[in-house]
Amino acid sequence: MMPGDRLLMALTAGAVLAGCAVGPTYRRPSVATPALWKSSTPSAPARWKEAAPQDTRTRGAWWEAFEDKGLDVLAVQAVHANQTLEAALARVEQARAAARISRAALAPTVEANPSYTKFRRSLSSIGSSGRSIESETVDVPFDLSYEVDLWGKVRRAFQEARADAQASAAAYETALLTLSGEVARNYFLLRALDAETDVLRQTVQLRQEALELVRQRFEAGIVGELDVARVRTELASAEADAVDVNRRRAELENALAVLIGKPAPEFVLAPSPLVEDPPAIPPGLPSAMLERRPDVAEAERAMAAANARIGVAQAAAFPVVRLTGSGGFESAEVDSLFEWDSRVWSLGPSVSVPLFAGGRNVANVQSARAAYDEAVADYRQRVLVAFQEVEDALANLRLLAEQADAQSRVLAAARDAAAISMARYRQGLISFLDVVDSERARLEAERGAAQLRGRRMASTVLLIKALGGGWDEPRAADAAAEGPAAL
Questions:
Q1: What are phi and psi of 172, to 5 degrees?
Q2: Which fold has domain 23-106+152-202+251-318+367-486?
Q3: Confidence class for position 7, pLDDT limits 50, 70, 90
Q4: What Rg value do the Cα atoms of the chain yield, rounded?
Q5: What is the number of helices (H) and of strands (E) in the chain?
Q6: pLDDT grade, residue 281 (50/70/90)?
Q7: Contacts of 256 by beta carbon, 8 Å cutoff, 6+ apart
């Protein structure tokens, strides 16, 4: 049998034996999943189904559900220019490269180490004086090294690295969803402040007109100086509130600049008062939410990686078999280097048997199992938090809608009361103190309505984020990118 045949048989036997891997087989732990949301009543009976991760589907431009061109532009800019997202993408590439490095350990390593040596040696070193010899050697060897994965240590390490890469990809999706959600939330809160600014601008104008009216009545001796002081106070209060709203708007505008990757001094967003109501977002089933949440997927991949590390730790206590070989050509003359008689080869398998490590291997296995238990607890906690976030968002939207309905009635009544009180004051039927009270109630109702509209928009964004965003149907290119070739 030729040496090459023996080497091939050894590699084949190692590959067969490598089919057995120590360590537990990964199975995703079960979690309690409710059939329906308690804060949402479905229009049709929903059927419970077990959650199966589908986080690799593209989530699409979920913000387009708001039908706001300004938000669409900002969201796209953030996706392409946000530096935190760029860093998350770089971490994904690092993790995928690490997985490819780990996978490379499954294959033999072959190296070419050509060398040329020329030397001169004096024969006096062996008792002959006055003479020397010169010689040269050309060597073109190919060295092979292969660790036979008898116990699955290398394959478990690759499973760990692959799961870490998938967890990193899920972390990127979490960062992307968080980023787009923050852009949308800040955008709608800013537009709500624009609506407040409009209310305060109108209020300042009305109070300036009221001040002129009171001055005329004061000069005519109809009212006292106290009414003039009161209207001045209310005018200054509205102006101060307007300055405070502008301050908060500037902070939100600067925050949006950072989110979309622009210097704050160069970013200006034109005022656009928020007047529309939020779109209706169907929550779907709780199990569907678990399929879409990228942070839940990240925690699940972390469990898989921790499970693989148990196998790596257990395999460290078993013998390691390595095959090393070398073959090539060696000659004293270049002309005859590649002749058949110039061939050289060697083959030397080795076995490394761990005999005593002071309990290190046992401790490593115990540590790996404890790390897996921690990952399971983190996963289940992440699921519980996910359910809580959706229920919070659903409850907020439902109650804010009820509050907005009541606020609209408050606003209508406050506007009527303000108009009636001013008319009666002009007729001299009531004091200006009654006008001040009614104007304060009207302004508070106007600002409350604007703030509620912004909070409802922000809560809708939080609901979409809690549900894991939207997704498009998987495309062939995306599916291929997420497959083994991506590693």
A1: -65, -45
A2: Outer membrane efflux proteins (OEP) (1.20.1600)
A3: very low
A4: 37
A5: 10, 6
A6: confident
A7: 74, 183, 186, 187, 190, 267, 269
Rounded-to-integer distance, Cα 23 and Cα 364, Å = 13
**Once rounded to an integer, what is the mean pLDDT over residues 63-87?**
92
Residue 12: the pLDDT is 46
User: What's the length of the chain?
Assistant: 487
Cα(36)–Cα(46) distance, rounded to whole angstroms? Answer: 8
| String of DSSP letters for 439-484 | HHHHHHHHHHHHHHHHHHHHHHHHHHHHTT---PPPPHHHHHHHSG
- Percent of the chain whose predicted confidence (pLDDT) is above 90: 37
How far is 402 from 396, CA to CA, in rounded Å? 10
**CB burial of residue 65 (10 Å; 0-12, 13-18, 19+):** middle
Residue with tokens 């009180």: 421
What 3-state class would DSSP assign to 330? strand
The most confident of the ranges 27-41, 47-61, 100-114, 399-413 is: 399-413
> Minimal CA–CA distance to 71: which of 189, 195, 174?
189
pLDDT at 337: 64
